[in-house]
Every structure is written in C-alpha cells, then in structure tokens.
Write a structure and sequence with these properties.
single chain, about 130 residues, alpha+beta, 2,3-Dihydroxybiphenyl 1,2-Dioxygenase, domain 1, 2 domains
Length: about 130
Amino acid sequence: MRIEHIAMYVNDSEKARDFFVKYLGGMSNDGYHNGSTGFRSYFISFDDGARLEIMNRPAMEDMAKPVNRTGFVHVAFSVGSTDEVDRLTEQFREDGYEVLSGPRTTGDGYYESCIVAFEGNQIEITV
C-alpha cells in the first residue's frame, strides 16, 4: 500500500503551487475549476511519484495553526543531502520564511530543518 496523495486547503492556491514548484521541484498540472461550486485545485507531482493536491473554495474557515497542536503538523521532503538541507534552509530564511528549527540532527537521527511556509503551514526539509 502507498499513500496516493495528500490534499490541503489554502487561501491562495497559486502562491501555494508556486512554493512547491520553486523550492521543492514539484510539477503542477494546469489546475481544475468547478464553475458551479467555485472549487479549484492543482495537483503537484514530485520525482518519486508522490502527489500533493492544493485546493481552494469560497468561504473557507481559516483557523489558527499553532506549532504544537493535534492533527497533521508538517509535510517532510527529502532533498537528498545535508548540503541541500543547509542550502534550502538558508534560501527560505533569505526569502523571509520563519525557520523553526535546524538545520540539525535530531535525537532520532534525522538531519532536518523545519520552516513556517505560506499560511502558517510547516514544511520539514530532511536528507
């Protein structure tokens, strides 16, 4: 069994799409729009076959996303090397994203950093 895709609602689907394409090498489809409901989505595909669906619709509730909360907390992307974790973390910092942690080696052996990306969503970068 494998996870086919993960979906997330966002306020600005183009900004979210551009984030995953620019920083993490995702490839976006042309998008989908249901004119009667206002629903919009993009599928972002990654080299290993993983996919992320970015969704938007009118009148969504946008709740606070504290760092320590229940539910899905972050999406982790393996970027292949410690050098790339370092480089990408610095790029995020230079581009104004908040770096929550790292780069560092965690107690369970991961070399990683974690940032707050668009709309308060956490993205983890690891080897």
